[in-house]
């Protein structure tokens, strides 16, 4: 099993990289990208079976970033894993770059274009169903936002995943309780979200979305119940890792000033304890 300290350091570096990308690209969904960094790091360095040298390997695990606006950490991880030269990320959000502000499948490692919320789960259901039909053992993971739960298409997909007994499908909700313009409870109340998923026939597991041990244990061992898709409700903090961005709705989409960048990078580098190379 992958070392927890390794994951923690890796996630901290990914946070520093994604902030730099947003600062240099002068645009980005900062809060949501920081919110899901630990989930993505755990998936890509500790759980999923993917091979950057063999993009079309039929048995690779699939990942769909349904909350596509939080693309920055995802690109940084794919670059770090060697899906493309990291240098290319310097073109983020520039005219003509394939590294646009939402995932697109011109980027090696990205399975599907996303960004219009509410579609990642439907695509994932198709991929999981295809695995069952073809007798393949790969798993399918998708990450949704909690604001995204207001999309009706999420629930059509949820219903069909249970109907087809897609236990090779794991959906994660980044439960940071904020969406674009304020709290999820104010914009579209969700509680009890766990009960909703359970009533749709899913196995529901709650985790602390910043606790690598819990994430590894749960994401590494789905399905818990044969014949049921799994919903991992990951409780997170939007803007996690940068004190002045945490739980502040306006950082949903925001570019730090030079001074704010320096503060953010110094907070994060303090967590590395002097280890900046690995
Ligand atoms: C179909 C659709 N409607 C609206 C938007 C605009 N939008 C972008 S992000 C966002 C809020 C998403 O909130 P949440 O899912 O909670 O994401 P997170 O908090 O993780 O950033 C909205 C409404 C969109 N991308 N797609
Ligand atoms: Mg949210």
| Estimated helix fraction | 25-40%
What's the arrangement of strands in the largest beta sheet? 1-2-3-5-4
In whole angstroms, how far apart are the ends?
18 Å
Backbone CA Rg: 18 Å
| CATH fold naming | Rossmann fold
Q: Give the overall silhouette.
A: globular
> Which whole number gives the mean pLDDT?
96
- Count of DSSP strands: 5
Taking the sheet with the most strands, its summary is: 5 strands, parallel
Tell me the strand percentage band: 5-15%
Name the helix and strand elements from N-terminus to C-terminus, one letter apiece. HHHEHHEHEHHEHEH
Describe this structure in words.
The chain has a single domain (4-271), classed as 3-Layer(aba) Sandwich (Rossmann fold), CATH 3.40.50.970. The chain is globular, with a radius of gyration of 18 Å. Helices cover 40% and strands 10% of the residues. The chain has helices at 4-25, 30-35, 37-47, 71-81, 120-134, 152-163, 184-187, 193-199, 212-219, 258-271; strands at 62-65, 140-145, 169-175, 203-208, 230-235. Helix 3 (37-47) crosses helix 9 (212-219). The chain is of the alpha/beta class and 278 residues long. Strands 1-2-3-5-4 form a 5-stranded parallel beta sheet, sandwiched between helices.
């Amino acid at each position: 099993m992958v070392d927890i300290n390794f994951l923690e350091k890796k996630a901290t570096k990914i946070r520093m990289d994604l902030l730099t990308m947003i600062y240099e690209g002068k645009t980005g969904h900062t809060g949501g990208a920081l919110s899901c960094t630990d989930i993505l790091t755990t998936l890509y360095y500790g759980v999923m079976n993917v091979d950057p040298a063999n993009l079309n390997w039929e048995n690779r695990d699939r990942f769909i970033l349904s909350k596509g606006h939080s693309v920055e950490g995802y690109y940084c991880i794919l670059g770090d894993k060697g899906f493309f030269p990291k240098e290319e990320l310097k073109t983020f959000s520039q005219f003509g770059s394939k590294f646009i502000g939402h995932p697109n499948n011109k980027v090696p490692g990205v399975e599907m274009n996303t960004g219009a919320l509410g579609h990642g789960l439907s695509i994932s259901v198709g991929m999981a169903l295809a695995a069952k039909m073809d007798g393949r053992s790969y798993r399918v993971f998708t990450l949704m936002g909690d604001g995204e739960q207001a999309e009706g298409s999420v629930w059509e997909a949820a219903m069909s995943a249970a109907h087809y007994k897609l236990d090779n499908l794991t959906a994660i909700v980044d439960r940071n309780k904020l969406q674009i313009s304020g709290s999820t409870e104010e914009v579209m109340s969700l509680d009890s979200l766990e009960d909703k998923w359970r009533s749709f026939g899913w196995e529901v597991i709650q985790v602390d979305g910043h606790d690598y041990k819990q994430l590894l244990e749960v994401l590494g061992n789905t399905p818990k119940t044969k014949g049921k898709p799994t919903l991992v409700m990951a409780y997170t903090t939007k803007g996690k890792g940068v004190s002045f961005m945490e739980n502040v709705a306006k950082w949903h989409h925001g570019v730090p000033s030079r001074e704010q960048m320096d503060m953010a990078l110094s907070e994060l580098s303090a967590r590395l304890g002097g280890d900046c190379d690995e």
